[in-house]
Write a structure and sequence with these properties.
The structure is a homotetramer.
Chain A: H1 12-22, H2 27-51, H3 53-58, H4 60-84, H5 88-92, H6 95-102, H7 105-112, H8 119-124, H9 130-133, H10 139-152, H11 154-179, H12 188-199, H13 212-228, H14 230-243
Helix pairs in contact in A: 1-2, 1-4, 2-4, 10-14, 11-12, 11-13
Chain lengths: 275, 275, 275, 275
C-alpha cells in the first residue's frame, strides 16, 4: 500500500484545492467550510418546509428553484472533491462520498421518476454532511475525545444493551399474558414495544396496563428502568474520565481524506498514504 | 466435596463432548455455540410471530412445524448436556438446567393439555439461554466487570430502592387523599402505581392529577424523581470506577458447569471439581 | 446539658429494655426488631387494602379487627419506649416519637370522630417507622454513606434545584403566552406545572403544546431537561466518590435515642448524654 | 480602561450605598438583600395569581394595588442602584440592569397601552432578579463551582447537543416517511418534534407511532435516548470532579457591579475598576 503513494506526481493546483476543500487550517479553507455549512443548513430547512403542506401549497415555485440551486452547488462541490483527491474511487465509496452523492441524486432522479415523496428523506441525508464541516471549529478535539470514550465503552454498553433487549422481550411477553389482547397488548411484539416505552421511561400512554397485576408488574419495570439507567452512565463516565487525559490527533489523509489516525502514525491506516 | 471428584474415571469422549458444549475455547465449541445461538433466536422469533393473530391465521402450519423442529433440536441438546456433565442431577436443578428443560417442555405438554396460551410465555424463557452463549464472544470479560460493579453496589442500591418504595407508598397515599376517587385515584394501590409512574419519570398520563394541590404535589414528586436518579447513578459509577481496575476470569467448571471463579482458583467453589 | 446526665441512677431493667428496643446488637434486640418490622409491613398493607372499595366491602370486619390489633400492639410498644428512655419528653417530641404516636392515634380518634377518611393517611405514616428498623440489617452502614454523600452535596443540589425552579417558572410563563388558554395552558401556575412535567421528562400528555412555536419551545425545554439531568448526577457522583472512602458510625444515644454522631464523639450532640 | 477609574473622587455616602445594595458582607447589606428577595418572590406570586382567571375576577383590586406597590418599590431600588454605581450607563445596559428596568416598565406602559396580556410575561422576568440575591447565602461558592464545571464542559456538551439535534432531524424525517400524515406525523418539523419528545424520554403520547415499522423504529430511538443520556452525564461528572478541587471568588466590582473575577485579581476584568 505504502509503495503506491503518488505524492510527488500530484499537480500543485490540485494539492491547493485539496487544502481548501478538505482542510480547515488556511483562511481560504475556513471560508469554504463556512459557506458550505450555510448552504447545507439552508438546504435542509428547504426540505423541511417542503413537507409542511400549507407552506408547499403557498410557495411551491420558490422551493423548486431553491432545490435546484442547492443541487447545482452541491454537484459542483462533489465534482471538485473528486478532482482534487488522489484516489477518486476510494473517496466516492467512502461514507462521506456516498452522502455527498445522495444529497444531489434526488433532484436528478425527480426528472425521470414521478414519486418524489421518498426522495424527500434521501435529501435529508444532507445534514450528515454537517459532520464534515465540524472540522471548521476546533470542536473536533472535543468530538474526538467523546468518540474515543464511547469507543472504549462500546463493548460494555453492548453487553448492557443486550441485557436490556433480553429484559424487554421477557417482560413484554409476560405482560402479553397478564394483560391480554383486550387491554391493548394485542401481540408479543406490541407488548415488547410497550416494555421498551416503559423501561426507557418514555411512557407514551397509548398502551397502558389496566389490570392490578399488570400495573404491579409495570411498576416493577419502571423502577428497574429507573435504576439501570445508572449502568451506561457509570460505564461512560469511567471511560471518559480515562479518555479526557490523552491528547488527540486530527490530521486528514491527503490521499483518501480519512481521519482518526493515531498520534504517532506516519502513514494512513486505510490507504497507506503518507500523512 | 473435593474428595468425590471423579475426573480420572470419566470417559474421554464425554470430556470431549463437555468441551464442545460447555466451553468456547475450541473451534468445535465455537461452531456449536454459534449454531445454538441462531436456533435460539429463531425459536424466539417463532414464538413472537405466533402471538400476532393475523400471522398465526395465515401461517399456522409452518409455525407448528418450526415449533416441533426447535423442540426436537433442544431436546437432543438437553440430552447431550445431561450426558457429558459428571453430575447430571446437579446440572438439571441448576438455573440453566431448568431453563433448558422449560424450553422443551411446552411442546410436549401441548400434546396432553389444551390451553397453549400460557405455555407461550414459558417458551419465551428460551431467550434466557442466550446468556449461556455469551461465553462465545469475549464480551463476557466486560459482563463480569459490570456484574462485579453491580454486586459491589447492590447493598447501596438496595437502600436506595427501599427509600424509593417507601416514598412512593407515602406520596401515593397522600395523592389518594388529595385527588380522591373521582379523579382516577381510585385506591391507595392505584395511587402508588401512579406515584411510581411519576417518580420514575415514565408519565403515561392514564392517571393524572386534576386539582391544584394535586398538581403542585405531582410537580414536587417529579422534581424529586428527577433529582434522586443521581443516587443510583453515583453509586454505580463509583463502584465501576473501582471494579474496572481488577482482572476477571471466565473459566467454566468441567464438573458442574458453574462459573464466576476467582482468578487464582484451582478448584470449583461450588462442587470442588478441578478447574 | 452534659451535667444532667443520669446514667448512674437509671434502673438496670430499663437499661436492658432500652437495649432490646433501641439497639440491634443483641439477639433479643434483633428478634424485637424483626417482629416489629413484620407488624409494621402488615399494618401498612391493611391500610392499603382498606382503600380498595371492593375489598373493604367484602372484608370490613376483619380489617377492623386487624386495625385494632395493630393499634394495641403499637400502643404497648410506644409505652415501653417511653418507659425505657431516660428523657421521655425529649423522645416524645422527636421525629420517631411523633411518628410512633401518629401511628396509634387514628384508631382512638375514630372512636370520637366520624370522618375516618383523612385518618387513613395518618395511619400510612406508620411506614416511616420502617426507617427505625433499618438498624436491624447492617444496611445502615451503606445508608450512612449515602446520607453523608447527599449531605455533602445538598448545597450544590440546592443551587441546582433553585435554578430548575426559576427555569420552570420562566418557561411556564412563556408557554402561557405562546399557547394561550384555548390549548390547555389555562393559567401561569398550570403552565408551570406543564413545564415541570416536561423538563423532568415525565411527559403525561394531559397538557401538550399544539401551536408550532409552542412545540418548538417545548422541544427546547425537553433537550434542556435531558441535558441538565447531568448536573445533579455529576454532583452526587463526585461527593459519593469522596464519601465512600470514610468510615461511619452508628451508635444511638442511650438518653434521647438520637443517631448520626461523629466518629470521635463522646457525648450526644443533641442532649449531651454520654454515648 | 484602568486609567479612568474614579475611586478617589467618589463621595463616601455613595460608596456606602453601593456596599449596602451590591455587596452582602455587611449586616445592612444582608437586610437589604433579604427584604429585596421577599419583595421579588411576592411580586412574582402576584403575577402568577393574576393569570388565574377565577382569582383575577375575585380579587382584581388588591392585585392592582399590589402591582403598583411593587412597581414603586422596584423603581426606587432601580434609582438607588443607578445613583451609587460609578458608571450608571454601563450598569443600565448590563444584564441585571435591563432585568431591573424590565421589571418596572410594564406597569408604567399599562397606563398608555391597552393590551396588558403580553406585559404579563415581561413582569415575570422579575424572577431573574433572584439570581442577584443569591449572593446573600454563600450558596454562591457552590454556584461558582457548578458554573465553572459547566463552562469547562460546554464545548463537549455542545458537540453532544449538535449530534442530538442531527439525530432528531434524521430520525424525525424517517418517521415522517414511515408513519405518514394519516398517523399524526403531518410534516417533518412535527415529526422532529415527536423525535425530540421520544429521544429525551418525555413521551407525551399526543403523537405516537401506529404502524409496526414505526413502533420498531420508535423503540430503537427510545433505547438510543436511554443510552446516550450517559454522554452529558459523563462529561459533566468528569469536569465537576476537576472543578470541585479549585477555590472560588465572589467579589463584585464597585464600579460596574460585574462578578466572576479570578481569585488573585486586583482589578475588575470588565471595567478596570479596583476590586
Amino acid at each position: 500500500m505504502n509503495i503506491e503513494s503518488r505524492d510527488e506526481s500530484f499537480s500543485p493546483w490540485r494539492s491547493k484545492l485539496h487544502e481548501i476543500i478538505f482542510e480547515a487550517n488556511t483562511p481560504a479553507g475556513r471560508i469554504f467550510d463556512l459557506a458550505l455549512i450555510i448552504f447545507i443548513v439552508l438546504s435542509v430547512l428547504c426540505v423541511m418546509l417542503d413537507s409542511v403542506s400549507e407552506f408547499r401549497a403557498a410557495h411551491s415555485t420558490i422551493l423548486r428553484v431553491l432545490e435546484w440551486f442547492f443541487t447545482v452547488v452541491f454537484t459542483i462541490e462533489y465534482g471538485l472533491r473528486l478532482l482534487c483527491v488522489q484516489r477518486p474511487w476510494r473517496y466516492a465509496i467512502s461514507f462521506y462520498g456516498l452522502v455527498d452523492l445522495l444529497s444531489i441524486l434526488p433532484a436528478y432522479l425527480s426528472l425521470v421518476i414521478a414519486g418524489t415523496h421518498y426522495l424527500l428523506v434521501v435529501r435529508l441525508l444532507r445534514i450528515l454532511r454537517i459532520f464534515r464541516i465540524l472540522k471548521l471549529v476546533n470542536y473536533l478535539g472535543e468530538a474526538r475525545q467523546l468518540t474515543r470514550a464511547l469507543m472504549a465503552s462500546r463493548r460494555k454498553v453492548g453487553v448492557f444493551l443486550f441485557v436490556v433487549v433480553t429484559l424487554v422481550v421477557i417482560l413484554g411477553s409476560l405482560m402479553y399474558v397478564v394483560e391480554g389482547e383486550q387491554n391493548g397488548f394485542t401481540s408479543i411484539p406490541r407488548s415488547i414495544y410497550w416494555a421498551v416505552v416503559t423501561l426507557t421511561t418514555v411512557g407514551y400512554g397509548d398502551i397502558a396496563p389496566r389490570t392490578d397485576l399488570g400495573q404491579f408488574l409495570a411498576a416493577f419495570i419502571m423502577i428497574l428502568g429507573y435504576a439501570i439507567i445508572a449502568v451506561p452512565t457509570g460505564i461512560v463516565t469511567v471511560e471518559m474520565s480515562n479518555a479526557f487525559r490523552q491528547p488527540v490527533d486530527n490530521r486528514a489523509c491527503p490521499v483518501c481524506a480519512a481521519e482518526g489516525h493515531d498520534h504517532n502514525a506516519l502513514y494512513c491506516k486505510f490507504c497507506g498514504g503518507q500523512l
